[in-house]
Amino acid sequence: xxINRLSANSSSRWLHTTAGxxxxxPCKTAEKTFDKILVANRGEIACRVIRxxxxxxxxxxxxxxxxDANALFVREADEAWRVGPAPTSxxxxxxxxxxxxxxxSGAQAVHPGYGFLSENASFVKRxxxxxxxFIGPKEYAMAAMGDxxxxxxxAKQAGVNTIPGFDGVVRDAEHAVEIAEEIGYPVxxxxxxxxxxxxxxxAHSAQQVREGFKLASDExxxxxxxxxxxxEKFIEEPRHIEIQIIADSQGxxxxxxxxxxxxxxxxxxxxxxxxxxxxxxxxxxxxxEQAVALARNVGYNSAGTVEFLVDKYRNFYFLExxxxxxxxHPITEYITGxxxxxxxIRSAAGLPLTTTDQNAVQINxxxxxxxxxxxxxxxxxxxxxxLSKYQEPRSWQRxxxxxxxxxxxxxxxxSMYYDPMICKLSxxxxxxxxxxxxxxxxxxxYLIKGVTHNIxxxxxxxxxxDFGAGHTTTGFLAEHYPQGFKGHRLTAxxxxxxxxxxxxxxxxRQARESSGRAADHIVLEAHVSLDLDAAAVKLQGTSSFSASxxxxxxxxxxxxxxQLEVAWDIDMPFVQVRHKAKDxxxxxxxxxxxxxxxxxxxxxxxxxxxxxxxxxxxQLMKExxxxxxxxxxxxxMPGTIVSVAVKPGDAVSEGMQVAVVxxxxxQNVLRAPRxxxxxxxxxxxxxxxxxxxxxxxxx
Length: 699
Hints:
Blueprint: E1 4-6, H1 18-21, E2 36-39, H2 43-55, E3 59-65, H3 72-76, E4 79-84, H4 95-105, E5 109-111, H5 121-130, E6 133-134, H6 139-146, H7 148-157, H8 173-183, E7 187-191, E8 200-203, H9 206-224, E9 229-233, E10 239-247, E11 253-265, E12 268-274, H10 281-297, E13 302-310, E14 316-322, H11 329-336, H12 340-348, E15 366-373, E16 375-376, E17 381-382, E18 385-386, E19 389-391, E20 402-406, E21 413-414, E22 421-429, H13 432-444, E23 447-449, H14 455-463, H15 465-468, H16 476-480, H17 492-515, E24 522-530, E25 533-541, E26 544-551, E27 559-568, E28 574-579, E29 582-592, E30 595-600, E31 603-610, H18 612-618, E32 632-634, E33 639-644, E34 651-652, E35 657-663, E36 666-671, E37 676-681, E38 688-689, E39 694-698
Parallel strand pairs: 2-3, 2-5, 3-4, 5-6
Antiparallel strand pairs: 1-4, 7-8, 7-9, 10-11, 10-13, 11-12, 12-15, 13-14, 15-22, 16-17, 18-21, 19-23, 20-22, 24-25, 24-31, 25-26, 26-27, 27-28, 28-29, 29-30, 30-31, 32-39, 33-35, 33-38, 34-37, 35-36, 37-39
Helix pairs in contact: 5-6, 8-9, 13-14
C-alpha cells in the first residue's frame, strides 16, 4: 500500500542544503527538462540529487521505507511515497512498489542514485515501457557494461587494456579453483553484477577460493539479486584509479580528470583524491581516451566511470565500468566545476552536455574525499544507534573549501538495514597540501556522538607521511596497520601537547565549577594519565599557560613548553590550542569521574587528571577482573545470522568457521576462538542479534 507524504514547506530544512548548492556552481540549464523527477534511492545520494533538481527548478519525489520515514531526504523532497518495510528487498529493491509510486506521483523521470536499482537493466526496461525517462544510460549499454564478464569482452574489442582472467561465467567453487590454478595466485573473485566492494574476495590458495566463492556469491545475491562470480588475476601493489566520463544522446563524450581511490578496506573505498599523484599528463590522456572509446563502443550516454588498476610503471588495466553516478563524484565536481547530476538530467532530457569541447576540461586545484562511516575503525565493523550529537565542519580558509554530502541530522538513526555511511566529507584547495590541511581541520571539527565512527582512522591516514608523499596503493591500510588500526599512536610531541592541554582543561573546569567564571590565574600540579602513559604536569596561567611536562616512562623525553594558548567555551565541544605556531583542535566529549574524554588527532582518549595524593591512592586500588570470553563466540556487531555451522557436542578446531552474520549487506565469518567442544548454541539462522551477544559457547 502506497502512502504519500507531502513535505512540509518549511524554510528550516534549507539550513542543511542552501550552502551545499554553491558547491556545484550556478545552474547552466535554461532549456526545459522535466517538471518532476522521482529519486529511487535514500540517504545522502537522494539529498544530493534533490539539491540539483531544485536548482534546476524541478519538483522532486522521494520513496522511503518504514525505517526512513523521518529521514532528511524525505523532508527535503517535495513529496514522498512509502514503498515498503525496512529490508531493501521489500522497499528500495521493490520494483513494483516503485513503479506504483512513479505512476501515482506523476513523475516524468527517475534518478536511481547509486546502489539499489541504479545498475538494474530490467528496471530501465520497465521504465522505457512505461514512457518514463531514466536518468542514466540506456538499457542496452547498462546491460552490456554493468555485467563485469560481458564488459571485459567489450573492453577488449574496444582496444582497452584488460587484466588476465576468465571471460565466462564461473559454474561453481570447483570451477573457480580450476580457473585460479590456471591463471595463477593470487586471484580476485568478484560479483559480476555489482560494485561497492560487495561480493569481492582475494584468494591465495584453493581453500581460500572455495571459501571466498561461497561468501562472495552469497553477498552478491543479497546485494544485487545476482550470484554470478568472475575470477581474474589479482595485481599486487596496484593503485585504483578511475576516469569519469559524461556523455549525451547526441554522441558527445567527454572524459574528466582521474580520481585515485587506492585507500580501501574490504575492497571498499575509504579516501579518494583528484587528481592522482601517480599519473603524468600522457598516461592521463591515454586512460581518458580508452574510457571514451569504451563508452562510444556501446553507445553510452549519461555519467559513468571506467575503473583501472595502475601499476608502479603506470601500466593500466581495465577493471570495470560503473554505469551510474559514482559515490566519490564530489571531488571531480570540485576540480572541474561540472555538476554531474545536472549533466545526467540534461542527457536524459535529450539535451547536449553543457560543453562538448574536451579542451575546455581543466584541472582546478586538488580535492580529497573521506568517507565517514558509522563503524569501528579497529575491526571495520558497522555501528548502529542514534546520533545524539551531530555537527558537520564548515568552510575554513576559503569559501566552500569543505563540502559535506550527507543525508542525516542530529537525532537521525543509523540502521542495521543499510550502508553505514554517515557523510562524504570533501575538501578542496589550490594544492594537494592545502586540501590535506583542510581535511585534517575538517575531521577535527566533525562532531559525532551516539555511534562509533571511523574518523580516528581517516585522521591518522591523512596525517601519515606516506599519504602526504602520495605513496598509496590498495594495500595501504594493511601495510600501515598490519595488526589492525589501534588509534593514533602518540609521539613525543603529541603526547606532550595532550598532557599539557588536558591539565589546562582541568584547570578551566575546576575554576568554573568553583566560582562560575574563569579564574584570573591558575596554578596546577597534577598527574595526567594518557591510557598507559602518565605525565607529571606543572602548569600556570589562564587562557595562556606556561607548562612543563615530564613523563614517568622512557618512551617520551621530558619536555618544557614555554607557552600554550587555549581557547575553550566550556559549554562547547571544540577546544582551540596554539602551540609552537601550530593550531590544534580537540573535542571535549564527556566528563569522567576522574577527568574527561577528549578527541585528539581523531582518536578518543580517556584522560585522568589527578593530584599527587590522588595518584598515590589510585596505585593502591585493585583492578576489576575482566570477563573471560575465550570460550565464547560473540557477535561482533548487530546483524542477522545467515548460517550456523555447528551444534552442541560438535568438536571444533581453532579458527574453524562456526557461523556467519550479516549486517549492512556485508557477511562476516565467525570462527572458533580455540579448539574444544560446543557446549551451547544460542542462535539459529535468521535470528537478529546485537553486538557482543553470546552466540556459541565452548566447554
